[in-house]
TrEMBL record:
GO molecular function ontology, one term from the record: antiporter activity
Protein name (record): Multidrug export protein MepA
Listed PANTHER family: MULTIDRUG EXPORT PROTEIN MEPA, SPORULATION PROTEIN YKVU
Membrane topology (UniProt): Multi-pass membrane protein
NCBIfam families per record: matE
Organism: Butyricimonas virosa
Annotated keywords: Antibiotic resistance, Cell membrane, Membrane, Transmembrane, Transmembrane helix, Transport
InterPro entries registered for this protein in UniProt: MATE_fam, MATE_MepA-like, MATE_MepA_subfamily, MdtK-like
Family membership noted in the UniProt record: Belongs to the multi antimicrobial extrusion (MATE) (TC 2.A.66.1) family. MepA subfamily.
Keyword Disulfide bond: no
Compartmental location: Cell membrane
Transmembrane regions: 20-39, 51-84, 96-119, 139-159, 171-191, 197-218, 238-261, 321-340, 360-378, 390-410, 422-442
Coiled coil region boundaries: none
Record flagged with keyword rRNA-binding: no
Amino acid sequence: MSSINASQVLETKPVGKLLLQYSIPAIIGMTVTSLYNIIDSVFIGHGVGPLAISGLAITFPLMNLIIAFSTLVGIGGATISSIYLGQKDTEKTNSVLGNVLLLCVINGFCFGGLTLIFLDPILHFFGASPATLPYARDFMQVILMGNPIAFTFIGLNNVMRATGYPKKAMLSSLLTVFANIILAPIFIFHLDWGIRGAALATVISQSIGLIWIVSHYLNKNTTIRFKPGIFKLKSRIIMSIFSIGMSPFLMNVCASSVVIILNNSFMRYGGDLAIGAYGIVNRVLTLFIMIEIGVTQGMQPVIGFNYGALLFDRVRKTLRYALIAGVSIMTFGFLLSQLFPSAIVGMFTDNHELMELSKFGLRVTCLMFPLAGCQIIITNFFQSIGKAKVSIFLSLSRQLLFLIPFLLILPRFWGITGVWSSMPMADFISFMTTIGTFMYFVRKGLLFKTNKTIE
């Protein structure tokens, strides 16, 4: 489908069908990606051992930082692209594509190179012990060497989804995941490369996905594509990308800071296996959060385009449907975690102590999941309509304003239970803050000042 046809669809097709059209591929892509992370952890847990899971958990802050720098460019570029498409300006959309590619490559090399130089001190700071450091180091050395590939893959895939190709974006994610699922057990079990083999499988799989994406942008039948003249960094485009992408960037930077505090708290109150338990819980919770993000990725081009086209009734309706979907997804995650914790945790390990720690943590951390579903949708709504400052504030509120203080205070009284309990308490206060902010904007008439037409 050409970008012109995609623009007509975004402007005229019923928003319920549009949300399904854009969200389902994104949800499938995000779900399969998250399932890959779970399966990868299962392979590592059973093929390398429980301490390897703890070592993998030590790398979470760095992985969050990789996602942070990727989404800074990818989400920002995707949002700006969809808004320009809504304004029927394909020339600027192509320029955004060129700037996204250059920024991803530059950020990938700079971040990967600097981190490799100081890798051991960074991992020690993140909570690594002498027992878990070798596993964390072996994993991250390979991941960081492939960092430019990961950055470019994530950035270009986001723009592809936002410019009218959600199914292709889904297929690129599926391609990398299936390649990884095939390669990881071969490298870990048959070639006996351990946790380093798992990392190598990830990099190779992302390379395969990137080749697929590049072929899309080289296709002459694609309106938004690589062409001469777009590969020039433009300050106005860069500032627009960064201003929109700053919200998910800061959210992931804060998430990295939170995981550092979490790892050190778990080490202090429970030891290496407690860190491993958090690693397992984090993988499970991330699955449902990634599905939720799939909904936000699906609503982003629909809301961004129609907001740019001043079709505010369509924006309202899209938000309403997204909220219903988001809360339903997180409620389902809550019920599964409460009813079947043993079955879920048992996929990762057969170590009794690690299983008991993980089951308790899983039940506690997901207590406020339904409320978190609403908070995530509304936060990304502000991002989708270009209100970067509001989105940044709401993104930071849960982690920086609420969760970190809880993590510093509650464990002093409740020990490891206080560490786990900090997360649902922060979810509740963040939900209340988000709802209050949204209602303030609605009552003040700051979201929808005019209306062009409705379906």
